[in-house]
Amino acid sequence: MRLTRYLGDSEAISPRYSPGYCGMNLSVQQALFKLVEAESLGVCLLPSMLMQPLKSVSGLLGLGDRRSFGRVDAPCERCNDAHCSTRR
């Protein structure tokens, strides 16, 4: 991941969390689109909260002290929904 080259020895990147997964409501897409100029990248948000082009992906990463993240794992390992259809 390109971000890792900017991190110090005690810093880490959290797992990626995306709207619609791991209990994050899909409506969070609206907030994410307010933070970035997605349309300048050729991505737009549809009323259904899906993005166009359809294979577009959004998500959130945390950056910080490695100790605050503990073991960096897949978001599904922290999610309590054992019956999620997207569980990895």
Brief rundown of the structure:
The two termini are 20 Å apart. This protein is 14% helix and 11% strand.
Quick one: overall form?
A: flat
Summing up helix and strand content along with how strands pair, one would put the structural category as little secondary structure
Major sheet description = 2 strands, antiparallel
H-E order: EHEEEH
**What low-confidence regions span 5 or more consecutive residues with pLDDT below 50?**
none
Total E-strand runs = 4
Order of strands across the main sheet: 1-4
Query: Whole-number average pLDDT?
Result: 82
Compute the number of helices: 2
**How widely separated are the two ends?**
20 Å
Please tell me the total number of domains: 1
Q: If you compute it from the alpha carbons, what radius of gyration comes out, rounded to the nearest whole angstrom? A: 15 Å
Report the portion of residues in β strands: 5-15%
Percent in helix: 10-25%
Commentary on this structure:
By secondary structure, the protein is largely without helices or strands. It contains two helices and four strands, in the order βαβββα. The protein has one domain (about 1-75). The chain has helices at about 30-35, 65-70; strands at about 10-15, 45, 50, 65. The chain is flat and about 40 Å long.
